[in-house]
Amino acid sequence: MNSTRLQSIHIEPGQRRRQTRSTTLIFIIVAAITVAAAWFAWPREGDERRVFKGNQKVKVGDAAGTPVAAPAATPATASGTAKVNPSGAAGDMVLTTSGYIVNRERIELSPRMMGLVTWIGVKKGDLVKKDQVLVRLDDAEQRARLYEIEGQLLGAKVAMERAKIAFQRVKRLRATNNETAEREDEVRLGVQSAEAVVQQIEGMRESSKVTLDWTVIRSPIDGVVLEKLAVAGALVTPQSFGGTKGPSTALVALADPQDLQVEIDVNETDLPKVFVGQRCRVTPEAFPDKSYGGYVAERAPEASRQKGTLQIKVQIEKPDQFLTPELSAKVEFLKGPPSSL
């Protein structure tokens, strides 16, 4: 029985050699995998991997873990123009509302006298310079009047010279007692009267020149033509006579495209959040990727009882061609001290 049990646990030599080779092969494979993992995991000089920590990045393998500053963000650009980055972060706003972009001042040029338009040299949308001639009125009457006055002036000067000659003659006769003192005084006063007439007519001439100059309408600012309100051949007048069929009272409307504001109606419950000089961020609804700096320039002196609002005007800083009057814009009122106006 014992011999039978010994035979059951007996291992043949060939089978024993096969088990030994399998075990050795497993150990070799495990050792190779361990060496390969250690090789790839070991940090080397020149590795380019980076680990970001907050707003910094640290080079892997750097024993000191020296932080490397991240590169500064580059402003986004559109059509070759850098996007405006107004002051104030998104978390600094205390109120957001919408309004309409408007020209701070709209100028309507009217004639100073009734006249017939003979020429208009601009159209809607044209850029104009200060003192540029925009409109000409018929000046035939004014020129004729100026010629008439200049003729009168020449006659008055001749009369003044005649009075001076007469005075010198009477003065010599008076020196030899051949003329009376009354006659000398009379002639001297005649000279002064002639000089007064000359001065009066010279004043009339200057007034006529001013009237003639009124027939040439010039731009008072550098700006853009908002509207063309008259045409060549139209009769214009500086005042309305009532009704809608009378002569036009304006020629062109102008504005400065670099002087823009946003008009906003702020609810009375939000008024404690708004003050004059407060920094703002303006974003046109048509171009939501663009924003502009601004500040509260005006608060209306009285509120609207019907709407329960107060009008606020925000001045836009450095406007460009993307801002068009009468389009809507979003305005964010920011925390912080008032702007230096």
Task: Describe it.
By secondary structure, this protein is α+β, with helices and mostly antiparallel strands. It folds into 3 domains: 86-105 and 257-334, Efflux pump adaptor protein, beta barrel domain (Elongation Factor Tu (Ef-tu), domain 3, Beta Barrel); 106-137 and 216-256, RNA polymerase II/Efflux pump adaptor protein, barrel-sandwich hybrid domain (OB fold (Dihydrolipoamide Acetyltransferase, E2P), Beta Barrel), CATH 2.40.50.100; 139-214, Orthogonal Bundle (Helix Hairpins), CATH 1.10.287. It is 31% helix and 28% strand. The protein contains 4 helices and 19 strands. The strands form 5 sheets. A 6-stranded antiparallel beta barrel has the order 6-15-18-17-16-19. A 4-stranded antiparallel β-sheet has the order 7-14-12-9, with no helix packed on it. Strands 11-10-8-13 form a 4-stranded antiparallel β-sheet, with no helix packed on it. Helix 3 (140-175) packs antiparallel against helix 4. The radius of gyration is 47 Å and the shape is elongated. The termini are far apart. 15% of the residues are buried. The model is unreliable at 48-85 (pLDDT under 50).
In short:
With 341 residues, this protein is of the alpha+beta class.
Index terms:
Elongation Factor Tu (Ef-tu), domain 3, six-stranded antiparallel barrel, OB fold (Dihydrolipoamide Acetyltransferase, E2P), single chain, Helix Hairpins, 4 helices, 341 residues, four-stranded antiparallel sheet
Low-confidence stretches: 48-85
Tell me the Rg in angstroms. 47 Å
Question: At the third CATH level, what is the topology name of the largest domain?
Answer: Elongation Factor Tu (Ef-tu), domain 3
Number of domains: 3
Number of helical elements: 4
Strands ordered across the widest β-sheet: 6-15-18-17-16-19
- Based on secondary structure, the structural category is alpha+beta
Sheet with most strands: 6 strands, antiparallel, barrel
CATH superfamily of the largest domain: Efflux pump adaptor protein, beta barrel domain
What would the principal axes of the Cα set say about the shape?
elongated
Spell out the helices and strands N to C: HHEEEEEEEEEEHHEEEEEEEEE
